[in-house]
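Batch manifest, entry 17 of 40.
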Amino acid sequence: MKTFLLLAVVYSFLFGEKIVTLATYNVENLFDLTREGNEYEEYIPNTQSQWNQKNYAIKLANLSKAIVDIDADILALQEVESLQALKDLRFELKRKGLYYRHFAIADQKNTTVKVALLSKFPFVYAKELRVTSSLSQRNILEVKYRIEGVEFYLFINHWKAKSGAESKRIVSARELMQRIKQIGRDKNIILVGDFNSDYEENVKFLKNRKLNDTDGKTGINHVLKTIYQKGKAKDVPYVDEALYNLWYDTDKEKRYTYIFRGKKEALDNIIVSQPLLDPKEMAYKHGSISNLEKPYLFYKKNINRWQMKKETPPIHLGKGYSDHLPLRAQFVIAP
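Output type: structure tokens
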């Protein structure tokens, strides 16, 4: 192993290596200004809720500020209403000097919000993984990349919120795992997004009867088999068929992207297949997983989310960002 690492360092010095920054960000209800009929009431454009051109422009400007600070090469997004909203965000980012030439959105199912992608790199394909026919389950976006001749697969997720029991999230996990088996667990595979599941959901939900309708089994831990590797990335042993949650590669107090009733939660995750833990043609860069903790993303002890005045319906105040923090990690490609 020492000889291999030495050769890897020499190769990187002589031929160079590419560092790819990957991030995921739930942007909290990025709606456009076209009335489609399936908007949340407070996002019906140009009504008393004041979702209008002014507030839309503020929302785009604020989100783009955070995304510029993330500076990801590949950015996975959740809660984007439409292709138009994605394009408007992309245009705002370009105005700020961050250009994503390539983009995609999972819009084959008419869910209220969707997952999407902004990318500096071209991709081989982007297609949707259909979870169920019901609008209550959002499709997963599958994207295949080939960078410097190295292939990897990216899956962008937004699982059912905790207004639903764990069985709702297991449905998404099983569909995802079935697709991973088809591709092959020996491939470079990265799962990102808002899983609405903590990296140790199996521990945290046990006493919650509303959530635990699966006899203690969870989608993120048991179906994806992240339960078997809990140490630092450089120390965990190879576990056949398991996936590794990168949250374990940072300090425990830093493992969060969401705050609910004063408690920090890690609803957003980046999960990788076993090959990405080894220093081969593509590998996770140890120690690179982190949330974005810029001061402007916080208000007092809470995350500085998009602010609404509590009326019926709520009224947009034109302040704030998102109720989630961005999450990012780096990968080294040295073909």
